Amino acid sequence: MPGSRQDLRQQLSTLAFSQAGYFTAAQALAVGYTYQAQKYHVDHGNWVRVQRALFRLPGWPSNADDTYARWSVWSRGEGVISHESAMSVLELSDVNPAHVHLTVPATFRAADDAVVLHRGVVSDGEAEQRSGWRVTTALRTLVDVAGSDTPMETVEDGVRDALERGLTTRRRLQLGADERGGRARSRMSDLLARVSS
Length: 197
Fold this sequence. Notes:
By secondary structure, the protein is of the alpha+beta class. It is 46% helix and 14% strand. It has helices at residues 5-17, 25-31, 35-43, 66-74, 83-89, 138-146, 152-164, 170-180, 182-194; strands at residues 22-24, 48-51, 54-56, 80-81, 100-104, 115-119, 127-129, 134-136. Helix 5 (83-89) runs antiparallel to helix 6 (138-146), helix 6 crosses helix 9 and helix 7 (152-164) packs across helix 9 (182-194). It is elongated, with a radius of gyration of 20 Å.
C-alpha cells in the first residue's frame, strides 16, 4: 500500500536534501510519485523542472557548486566531476572550462551538449565526496588531464599548484601516469621535468 502524502513528501525531501535539492523523475517514481503526480507538482509550483526528467525543490539556496550537483544527479550518481572541471573545483590552475566534465562508466548512455563525458572507472580512493556529488582527487585529476587534450601550460600550472599545496607528490604523479600509459605517461614526464622540485 502506498505511503501517505506526508510520507512521500518526507522521503522525497530526504533524497533531495542529499543531492543539493535535485532529484530525477525516476527517483520520484521510485518514492511513489506517478508521472501524473509529478506533472501536478510541477504545474502547481511544488517542484521546479530543471530539464526533462530532472527537478529541484523550490527555494533551494543557490550555491557556486550547483552545476556539479545537477549533472551528478542527471547522471544517476554514476558521473564523477573530473578533468578540467575537477581542476577548477580543486583550484589547480585558473582553468575555467566551458562545459562540465564527467567521468562515467562505459555503459552510460545519456548525453547532453552541456557536458563532456569521459569513459572510465573512478575507484573510491580516486574521488572525494562533496555535497551531493563527487570529484576526482588531485592525483587522478592531473593524470586524467595529462592524458587529454588540455593545454600543456594548464596542466603544468595544475601540477605546480598541487605540489606546492602538498596534494600529491612527484612520485605519485609519475606512477599514476605510468600506470595509465600512453599520452599521460609521456606528458607527465615532460611536465615534471618542467616543474622545479
